[in-house]
Task: structure prediction
Amino acid sequence: MSTGESSQQAGELSAFFKGDYVPLSQARVSVMTHALHYGTGVFEGIRGNWNEEQGVVNIFRLREHYDRLLRGTRLLMLDIPYSVEDLCRITVELVERNGHRQDIYIRPLVYKSAELVANLKLQDLESDFTLITVPFGNYLGTDLLRCCTSSWRRVDDPMIPARLKICGIYVNSILAKTEATLAGFDEAIILNHDGHVCEGSGENIFMVMDGRLITSPLEDNVLPGITRDTVIQLAQSELGLDLDERSIDRSELYLADEVFLTGTAAHLTPVVQLDNRDIADGKAGPVSSKLQKMYFDIVVGNNAKYRHWCTPAAPRTGGAALEENLPQHATPDIGA
Ligand SMILES: Cc1ncc(COP(=O)(O)O)c(C=O)c1O
Result:
């Protein structure tokens, strides 16, 4: 089956589902699906940034996202027949087919697709891969964040490893984000089991103190963020800042010169208040502002030095794309 043969509404987005590009409305799973009941999947959040002059969506650090996704599949015994290269090709193809001319969010998901409940043995369950792309703007809804310290603690590695983007683990983030926003804050800062600062509900955290950049180490149950890695590289090579990856006490955040969050959805966003206390003068600090400006230029594809981090996808005009554009492994029967 190809998109051309499906009953697709004009203007409807496509999804990659069960090895094929199909209208989004036809990408449906059964209520028996294992991942729906137990959160047995791993996912990624990738941004594509529209560059008007270049006429392309620049997908940021696509390979690194799929490296992380495939690492996650090992723990959950999620078998899919795609390499990082295959997944990158499928993604560019879908973005081009969907014809986006705006910033987008790209959501790959590898999940236990077995229609089988009351079975907790990963080795018994077949897996599948699906991919959607949607228009996406400012995720946090503000440019300067007012945060609170969450009453929820981050899950610890021997419970569910936070270093992977496991679907079920996001209930932890969702409880924290819900609590924070219902209390009128923009985002939650989550502490780990021993009370050290971990991260936001969907972002890594940095602070600037006496000219040094400090971020929580991965062993504190932190997701190895791709934006985190990007910011570390830029801070060190472009701004010559020293970096400390070390546990952060809660009280240090209140006393920091600057605090900011990083994430694919959140970009780099300064935190100006924590638990109703201003951080420094309650404004975006100079390091955050410099890094943010550099980051925005890079992700949109305007910085030649870092263009290797951008994968361009040119929106197609004129309807459904051709069958021969399907990647070699993308046959309809895979994963079943
Ligand atoms: C819990 C958590 N921490 C950090 C991040 C930031 O990671 P990245 O920069 O790879 O998007 C995310 C987003 O994926 C996240 O969900």
